[in-house]
Amino acid sequence: MKTYNAYDIFSEFYDEFIQKNCPDLHNKYFKLVNETLDKYNLKPNSILDCTCGTGILAKKLKDEGWNVQGLDINSNMLKKAREKGLEVFTGDIRNFDLKQKYDFIFSFDSLGHIAAKEDLIKTFKNISHHLNEGGIFIFDGGTKSKALTMINNTYTFDSDKYSFIWKNYKINDRIQVEINIDIKPNNEMPIKVVEKFELCGHDVNEIEEALKETDLTINFITTDPLVKTGSFVCCCRK
Fold it and tell me: Which domain of life is it from (predicted)?
């Protein structure tokens, strides 16, 4: 029997799902990146989106003339990014090694997958390792109180090929996500795929403490209405 990975399937309609459920998300991230570049008068020769997914944001930046590469842990997501003409690499944000350095690195809508403090520190140290001196790293996240507001949220998508439900539940102080996907083969019984994983919030003091273990200096860290109240954006310099 074939084994299915939910995110492998999700990659097939991820862009359409985002357009339906969060149509302005990547436009807001695009604006944030450009505002950061302007604020610090940056003209980076190399940019890395280190949680690029299907490459929606990286493609926007490439179309503006920036030299952008992408990284993601899911090879099927990266397949979609390559179809957009992007140069991308497979890797885990905590321990990837691209053997090159960048002037500007960003990671959005991904920190919730990293729960343990030691993994946060590993992540920040690894990103610092990939930054040139004076380089900038910017990322966002959600506080623990924000995470609680997302309990029982449901997101859906339906097409001729797939039915998709993303449901958030509470488990201790974290969110348990349950993904249900029905694959609809032609003239065959639907194939059901169910996958569960946890997401967590991070309070600003946790981020500050983890960054103290690195050689990154915080330029700013602030609550920001980028997604919802309770989100924060952090910008660091090496």
Answer: Bacteria
